[in-house]
Fold this sequence. Notes:
By secondary structure, this protein is mainly β. It is built from 5 helices and 19 strands. It has helices at 14-24, 40-51, 115-118, 209-212, 219-226; strands at 57-65, 72-85, 88-99, 106-114, 119-120, 123-124, 133-137, 143-147, 155-163, 167-176, 184-194, 215-216, 230-237, 243-250, 260-264, 268-277, 281-289, 293-302, 307-317. It has a 9-stranded antiparallel sheet with strand order 4-3-2-1-11-10-9-8-7. Strands 12-15-16-17-18-19-13-14 form an 8-stranded antiparallel sheet, sandwiched between helices. Strands 5-6 form a two-stranded antiparallel sheet. Strand 2 and strand 3 form a beta hairpin.
Amino acid sequence: MTVPERNEVAPPTYEESLKHFLDHYKVQKASDLAQHKEDKQFWQDRLWENWGTKCSKWIGEWVTYHPKTCDVVDRYRFERSFWTEKEHPDTIFHTKTFWFTDGRGTVSANYNVSKDEIMRPYGMVVNCEDPHLRATLFPTGNATYLHTNISFGKPVGGEIVMPGKHTKLALYVTFQTKTEGKGFVSKIMLVREDTRGWPSPYWSADLTDEQLQMRRLTPYEAVERVGGSFTGFKATMQLDLSVDIEEKIHFDMDFEGSDEIFELPDDCIFHVRRLPEAGKGLEFRAFWLRDGYIEETGAFYDGKANESVVFAAKYWKTA
């Protein structure tokens, strides 16, 4: 197993990261965001601009886990490219290629998405066959995909994306819901990508299936794994796409009462605070433990109001 140096890119400071958010939303301080609260077009335009942060060539590995045994059940290499063209500024072009080793061979596909086609008042619908699966992105490229209207008794999908300068970490999760009682996690997929190639200068390489295994954590183990005291800021996007930012807040390490906590390779923790339950909702988030700071992205689905809220946060170690 090869574990590369993790600090090849200097981490952003609190001030740099916060300014990046505020500049994108065209304000000087977080309290000024209120002036755009009712301007729906403003938030939709900012969301489309955020989609542009995904434009690049990504190369990596996709690993699928069995949530009960934590074993690897599938893995394969892939390459994806996103780009825009001057003649079509409101269109994102996308190509992807997957290399399978189980007889499926090489599979390639390409498609385009336009702003008019996918933009909705509540987010972007990348999969037009499923209008309730909305994509939301923040200026840093942190993203979530979550249903805005969960039909209990059926599977529901969610996705969390957390990018670095050259790297990107994503979790694709499927929950099986029930008409009564709590549902359960039925599938977890870990995606590690790098714009510079694979094996990656950042991600662990040459891992066996056994080394790639995830493991369950107790609330105590999760706190121990994160360790220390962290302070940062948190951006929350409502169903109408409006954004609020909380500054200089402490990282919430309250894992007590959680339904599921998993640790995955390369310093990723997947935390399901609440499994899906009719009338109550669903809440999950992921942490990427970086060099001196933590990335957090997650979502909360309100089972009573039938609407979802998403959030992204960065916290820097203070002790």
